[in-house]
Amino acid sequence: MDIVAIVGRPNVGKSTLFNRLIGEKQSIVDNVSGVTRDRQYGQSNWNGKEFAVVDTGGFVRNSEDVFEAAIRDQVQIAIDEATVILFMVDVSTGLTDLDEQVAHLLRRAKKPVVLAVNKVDNHTRQLEANEFWSLGFEETFFLSSVTGSGTGELLDAVVEHVENREEPERTIPHVAVVGQPNAGKSSFINALLGEERNIVTDIAGTTRDSIHSHYNKYEREFMLIDTAGIRKKAKVYENLEFYSVMRAIRAIEESDVVVLIVDATDGVEGQDLAIFRIAQKRNKGIVVAINKWDLVLDKETNTARDYELKVRERFAPFNDLPIIFMSVLEKQRIMKVVDATMQVYENRTRRIPTSQLNDVMQAAMERYSPPNYRGKEISIKYVVQLPLAYPAFAFYCNHPQHINDSYKNYLENQIRANFEFSGVPISIFFRKK
Ligand SMILES: Nc1nc2c(ncn2[C@@H]2O[C@H](COP(=O)(O)OP(=O)(O)OP(=O)(O)O)[C@@H](O)[C@H]2O)c(=O)[nH]1
Ligand SMILES: Nc1nc2c(ncn2[C@@H]2O[C@H](COP(=O)(O)OP(=O)(O)OP(=O)(O)O)[C@@H](O)[C@H]2O)c(=O)[nH]1
């Protein structure tokens, strides 16, 4: 999926536009599941074209006083990683030095740039906004993110640069190895591939600059997707947090299963969660590998168990997934991670025959039926698994809009209790019948 990155100074209105793009619905859903840092990444659809949106402002806390250098850094990363750059400026403050600096970087980029002059709320501001033509971007649009005026034209221009890429037919599982800088991603991949590291580049229409390596040993075969280390030679960004999430997004997009490597000495941090939620939103299989377990000293009988419980809490509500403690350094349990990955891949492709699914779910719904809504009886007639690349179920019922989240969770838990979907997010829809 193509990535549209919104860049610009603090306070110009990036997150207001971002929220508009990803839609009210998504933010409500996220609130329910306790996602707080959802400002970074979302999916949008315009004119039938789907794309991912990244709000670069979501990566800086207190962005009011963020260093200018950090913003320039983000712009450079966005240029490298995104498909289209949406550069936002603010008519109410007028053109600033930092705008000029950002524009300078963008003009040299070989990526399409769309300039959005925001807060053009009225006629006076419309006149003032003309000064931004001096930045020299052919595609310049005037909008008001709060009222929404002008956003349609802007998006039309943005999606001109977006391709609707079909998911390529895959013959073997694609596995993305992601995690924070220094978690041990390269060490893990090197341990798997050793000398035989066979880098496959340029798979038609899929790769740009992530590295694909083919693993085929001990009757296990998959493609490893690794974006680690690409930039090491070129430039080490100060803004590592933004950079590593950005490159994780790319790898996740191309994968079926994501192996999230976490440094045991740090525990699960905000950034690990950000990457985890992106994989979850994209319905990818997930395996968590807690690495550097050798560095955790004085281990007792319950150390791993207690640690695992804490990790599961962090990932809630989606925590039906394999968590494996490994040490790449001491070659401990690396193959366990591989096996879990293969299992999760299988779970993600699992198809439950309709009759079996209905037998199990009818029984579950008899044990605990959907609560009435304002005296209306809710009845779910049957359920089918949808023909998608990931597990998704449609429940046909009389009042689809009145089934509450706790009942939805009940249904999901029942599916998980009866069928093996460990490591895989499940989508549940209610449809009118
Ligand atoms: N008048 C007006 N105000 C706007 C418009 N869009 C956003 N704002 C306001 O501008 C302020 C900053 O908006 P944000 O969306 O938080 O800006 P941001 O660029 O994401 O800021 P950072 O989080 O600092 O990066 C908020 O008070 C918005 O309500 C607009 O079109 N017109
Ligand atoms: N003690 C210990 N050190 C490890 C382990 N795995 C990796 N390391 C060390 O951690 C450091 C970082 O490992 P890398 O594999 O380069 O980490 P990375 O995630 O690829 O890092 P970036 O490319 O910066 O994103 C190296 O010094 C490794 O030797 C482990 O299991 N135990």
From TrEMBL:
The lineage of its organism: Bacteria, Pseudomonadati, Bacteroidota, Saprospiria, Saprospirales. This is GTPase Der. Residues 2-166, 173-349 form the EngA-type G domain. Belongs to the TRAFAC class TrmE-Era-EngA-EngB-Septin-like GTPase superfamily. EngA (Der) GTPase family. GO terms for biological process: ribosome biogenesis. Keywords: GTP-binding, Nucleotide-binding, Repeat, Ribosome biogenesis. Transmembrane segments: none annotated. It comes from the Bacteria. Gene3D superfamilies: 3.30.300.20, P-loop containing nucleotide triphosphate hydrolases. The keyword Kinase does not apply. InterPro entries: G_ENGA, GTP-bd, GTPase_Der, KH_dom-like, KH_dom-like_a/b, P-loop_NTPase, Small_GTP-bd. GTPase that plays an essential role in the late steps of ribosome biogenesis. One of its GO terms (molecular function) is ribosome binding. GTP 1 binds at residues 8-15, 55-59, 118-121. Associates with the 50S ribosomal subunit. GTP 2 binds at residues 179-186, 226-230, 291-294.
